[in-house]
Amino acid sequence: MTSASPASRPRVRFAPSPTGFLHVGGARTALFNWLYAKKYDGDFLLRIEDTDRQRSTEDSTRAIFDGLAWLGLTWDEEVVYQGANVAQHYADAHRLLETGAAYRDFTPPSVIETLRAEAEAKGEGFRFDRSLAAYSESELAAKLAAGEPYAIRFRVPEGHTEWIDLVHGRIAFPNKDIEDFVILRSDGTPVYNLAVVSDDIAARVTLVMRGDDHISNTPKQILLYRALGAHVPEFAHVPMIHGTDGKKLSKRHGATAVGDYQHQGMLPQAMLNFLALLGWSTGDDTEVMTLDELVARFDTRGLHAKAAIFDTKKLEWMNGQHLARLPIAELATLMAPLFERAGLATVADLTARHEWFCGVLELLRIRARLTDEIVAQAGPFFTDAVEYDADAVAKQWRDAAATADVLEATHDALAALATWEPAAMEEALRQLAEQRGISGGKVFQPLRVALTGLTVSPGIFDVLLYVGRERSLARILAAVGYLRSPA
């Protein structure tokens, strides 16, 4: 397993294919690599593996950049595009050809397909027979002179290939189970395993940390590193992410793209915290951590070998924890554009009323797990009138005449106050309840519906304070009018 710190300056990379949005699994892999680089003063590199020209798109590339930027996972060097390195891949393949570590295969694709179909018909797995590409010197010269197309296959040596994985420990593959695999297609384009190794060598990558669905590729890549005379990096294969049903995370479990969660009201720091705990732990019960704390505590020894579970409810809980801890001024900066988008107030207005806005946010974030929920609760503090929830009316205003009388008396008691302060409001309304021989709740609950239209809200005196004197008194009178109007 890994030592407490690497012996040399670490260089790690995140290498997504731009064939879709930044998936939470990819974001988690990027995060682990980023944390490792920051923990050990290394370099975090970004490589876009765009050699699949048919599926790679600029929109997907932009989505990857946007997702990483939202999370704050910045890279340390210029982005590398794998498609720009094809000449390097070609040269490495031919270098292996020159050393005898690889050979030309002129077998037509149609023959390969026929052999594959015959093997499948027998219930066997197809393996390329090296003898199909055994040519005499004269045959080889003739084929080359005729310009026949050929693929380049790696000559898998005898023995076995093993490595000490930082997550799974010792992993070994018998080389006899690995067929001589193609590294360069007949059209001159590289196959995945060669391109990855060639790029990682050029980038001087010291640790390859990626999903454990790549374990089967690793022995092939180690063989290529050795054949190219390069240092073999360390490997860490992190577990897959499953849904709560134990199956591989997919769209049937809900949103799987990082951008979706950004637009659902998640904080990037909460998303990072949640992703970090998918397949890694601190070794104690600590769960809520800042990014700096994650960097300080990250260690590959805390990576788990078993699949991680993506629990959306846990993510929302985590987001609520970070919402509660965010400095109120930062929260105000974050929330102002969301309030403007909802049509409640302009950013300029909220900036001018900064102290009041921060006070409202303090009230609302206690009950919220998402930024959208803060906006959804905010209406009573911004609108002149409120809509009465039918259930709230049925529960708290059952006796319309009696409730109207109480609310009218409440209005008069509050209107008589010299100062609009919670302590004075509470004293006045408790005296009112005592004078009428009713509990404080019989005053507070009908008042809550009058002010917010709901049965649940922040503390009633805080609501009065931040709704404001004029607007609060007007709403109480409006409620009295509603209750006394003919049905």
Characterise the protein shown here.
This protein is mainly α and 487 residues long. It folds into three domains: 1-78 and 239-325, Rossmann fold; 92-165 and 169-184, Glutamyl-tRNA Synthetase, Domain 3 (Glutamyl-tRNA Synthetase, domain 3); 384-484, Arc Repressor Mutant, subunit A, CATH 1.10.10.350. The protein is built from 22 helices and twelve strands. The chain has helices at 24-39, 58-71, 86-99, 109-121, 137-145, 192-203, 218-227, 258-263, 268-276, 291-297, 312-325, 328-341, 347-352, 354-365, 371-377, 379-382, 390-396, 400-415, 422-436, 441-452, 460-467, 469-484, and strands spanning 11-14, 43-48, 80-81, 102-105, 151-154, 160-165, 169-174, 182-184, 207-211, 234-238, 241-242, 308-309. It has a three-stranded parallel beta sheet. Strands 4-5-8 form a three-stranded antiparallel beta sheet. Helix 7 links the parallel strand 9 (207-211) and strand 10. It is elongated.
SSE order and pairing:
Blueprint: E1 11-14, H1 24-39, E2 43-48, H2 58-71, E3 80-81, H3 86-99, E4 102-105, H4 109-121, H5 137-145, E5 151-154, E6 160-165, E7 169-174, E8 182-184, H6 192-203, E9 207-211, H7 218-227, E10 234-238, E11 241-242, H8 258-263, H9 268-276, H10 291-297, E12 308-309, H11 312-325, H12 328-341, H13 347-352, H14 354-365, H15 371-377, H16 379-382, H17 390-396, H18 400-415, H19 422-436, H20 441-452, H21 460-467, H22 469-484
Parallel strand pairs: 1-2, 2-3, 9-10, 11-12
Antiparallel strand pairs: 4-5, 5-8, 6-7
